[in-house]
Write a structure and sequence with these properties.
Helix content: 25-40%
Number of helices: 19
Structural class: alpha/beta
Shape: globular
Largest sheet: 13 strands, mixed
Radius of gyration: 30 Å
């Protein structure tokens, strides 16, 4: 029976109150942005409406298939990298919304609960904010303390999330705490919430990686309790960092009582006796990567053979930054053992005591080297001698070769040009047969590989081009994109000459039998990607140099995955990717071109092909099988103030 007083408007105040809630955007209201571009999920029809048959199929899916589906819902649940919370963040979605979707999957049924909980507590990360439109509404709601207090101070959301996580894990440490392997927190949270962080770590016995405050790495007395908690409760950690002042804690590793399973060790401003350091490294049988930064005590004695000391361990990745007392002689001693030559695949030399003329001694011995980083400042031109040889390696695939002049040197001296000429001659002499990508700080490096001299400065009498002369070595052609080789054979100083009319892939000439690194060379025999920029502050340009001409269209380098440019960048699998990439190589705005052979020993510049059309209206750079966007929100752009 209908109530007659409903028509009289007695309960109209109730409906008006609900309309006000909807107007402010409460989570259950229709104006709350659940989808992309602020659209409500209920107002959008699903692309594939569910049916009874589809529901029955989903109920019969095995656990391993469900886990793969849940990984697509929340990709960061499988983050097993040794990078911090800031460095391992995803770029194409809201991680908090993805985590919420995975938590909703746990509540569907018992079958989904067992499969989703494995991922939900495998790799935990606490993000400070939502990277979508939801954060603006949530921040507004957090400030509404009471009906009359609409400008209250917002709470510390990351700290509140850590407290809730700590309560959940401590309530069930056997089934939930034992599942956690990776635990990542933002910088401000791990620096301020030491007590909550210690209480959470205490119930995580199988933890492999955790973000810790910087004071703990330098033996700060304020973090003594947290350090003892980590040493006692987390014996299976795989990565640890020691900063200046923590030499005593580093020496404790030699006893073999704590963290024997370390795979990555990072030493920053550590001044320790090389003999003690040898004992520390020998006590870590699973050590695969070592990074040493800003240390003068780390010298050649660490690698030298000594019958009274254990040998230096065979590493897969070795990163040396600002270690001026490490020379080529020390690395030659280290690579004299067969096990070290077979193990080392990544080597980074950033501002060390190794000079470029002696670099070939190290590269020739590292028979398994895949990625090499060389970064140094020079104050003089390349000094070649009777012992100087070209770089030679059959295993090297990626080379980052950044040579910059000293700030006190004249910017017009051009002393770095001789170093890049040395590298170009090594490549053209087929010394680096397996090299596929090279990163340089020279905008004209691709021209050196093509056999073209660097363009001279524009004169005042030039009319839309430089004057033609016999010394220019360039023949005029009616086609503007034809780049002919240097027919005259002039090398223009130290420029490696190209043989005129040499067939593609021809071996290097034996005309010069000396060890001169700038002697005559042949042509390029394999495709090479050249990433070049003028200085560290500029965007890099991409050039693909190919030895042979292609009759069909150039294969497109557009991809369906995020990050359309799929290049062989030097990436570390032990959390040292920033040292391999360097500064500025991952920036946008790249200029790209492709160079292929013209049949007479030169190269022809071809126009870049257009990206392939995307099916179903997808944009370039998007996923062909995109993740669910029910709560992903807008992608982060230039307005993101948290990154």
């Amino acid at each position: 029976m209908r109530l007659p007083f409903r028509k009289m408007g007695i309960f109209s105040f109730r409906r008006n109150k609900d309309k006000k809630k909807d107007a402010i955007g409460v989570p259950w209201g229709p104006s709350y942005p659940n989808g992309e571009n602020g659209l409500d999920a209920k107002s959008r029809a699903p692309l594939f409406p569910p049916t009874r048959f589809s529901a029955r199929l989903i109920a019969e899916l095995p656990s391993n298939v469900l886990e793969r589906i849940f990984v697509a819902v929340c990709p960061q649940s499988q983050d097993e990298s040794y990078e911090t919370c800031e460095q391992s963040a995803l770029e194409d979605g809201c991680m908090l919304c993805d985590l919420r979707d995975l938590a909703h999957c746990v509540q569907v049924c018992k079958q989904w609960r067992a499969a989703a909980r494995k991922l939900l507590y495998h790799s935990i990360r606490i993000d400070p904010v939502h990277y979508c439109a939801r954060e603006a509404y949530l921040a507004e709601l957090r400030k509404r303390r009471t009906k009359f207090d609409r400008n209250g101070e917002p709470e510390d959301t990351p700290s509140a999330r850590l407290k809730l996580l700590c309560r959940t894990l401590r309530d069930d440490p056997t089934r939930l705490g034992a599942r956690v392997r990776y635990f990542k927190t933002p910088y401000m949270l791990r620096e301020a919430a030491q007590a909550d962080l210690a209480r959470t770590i205490a119930v995580l016995p199988n933890l492999l990686y955790v973000d810790l405050p910087e004071g703990l790495f330098s033996d700060d007395s304020a973090y003594a309790t947290l350090r003892l908690e980590v040493e006692a409760r987390c014996p299976k950690l795989l990565k640890m960092t020691y900063r200046g002042g923590a030499e005593r804690s580093l020496a404790k590793l030699a006893r073999g009582t704590i963290w024997r399973h370390l795979e990555v060790l990072e030493l920053i401003k550590i001044n320790m006796d090389p003999n003690v350091l040898r004992h520390v490294l020998a006590a870590l049988p699973n050590l695969h990567a070592l990074k040493v930064t800003d240390s003068r005590a780390f010298n050649d004695d660490v690698f030298a053979y000594n019958e009274m000391l254990p040998p230096f361990p065979a590493l897969e990745q070795l990163v040396l930054t600002k270690t001026p007392n490490v020379t080529a002689a020390g690395l030659v001693d280290y690579l004299s053992y067969p096990e070290t030559r077979a193990a080392l695949t990544v080597l980074a030399l950033n501002k060390t005591g190794i000079e470029i003329p002696t670099l070939h001694e190290v590269v020739s011995l590292a028979t398994s080297l895949k990625s090499l980083v060389v970064q140094c400042r020079v104050d003089g031109p390349f000094k070649s001698g009777p012992q100087t040889q070209r770089l030679s390696s059959r295993s090297l695939e990626t080379l980052r070769y950044e040579i910059s002049s000293d700030p006190q040197a004249s910017p017009y001296s051009g002393i770095t040009q001789t170093y890049y000429t040395y590298l170009a001659s090594s490549i053209l002499a087929n010394g680096l047969t397996n090299l596929r990508a090279v990163y340089v700080l020279d905008a004209e490096f691709a021209d050196q590989l093509s056999g073209l001299p660097p363009p001279p400065p524009r004169a005042s009498f030039a009319q839309h081009g430089r004057p033609s002369s016999a010394g220019s070595g360039l023949s005029k052609s009616p086609h503007g994109n034809l780049l002919a080789p240097n027919i005259t054979g002039g090398n223009g100083g130290l420029q490696p000459p190209m043989r005129p009319f040499a067939p593609s892939g021809a071996p290097a000439s034996n005309r010069f039998s000396s060890n001169n690194p700038f002697a005559g060379t042949g042509s390029l025999t394999h495709t090479l990607e050249v990433f070049a920029k003028k200085d560290e502050a500029m965007n890099w340009s991409f050039v693909k140099v190919s030895p042979t001409a292609q009759l069909g269209p150039v294969p497109s380098r557009y991809s369906m995955v995020p990050g359309a440019l799929q290049s062989e960048r030097p990436i570390s699998s032990y959390g040292l990717g920033a040292d391999m990439l360097g500064n500025g190589w991952n920036t946008a705005g790249a200029r790209r071109s492709v160079m292929v052979g013209n049949g007479i020993g030169g190269f022809t510049a071809l126009p870049q092909d257009a990206p392939p059309p995307m099916p179903n209206g997808l944009q370039a750079g998007g996923d062909s099988w995109p993740r669910p966007v029910s709560s992903a929100g807008e992608k982060r752009g230039d307005r993101d103030m948290w990154r």
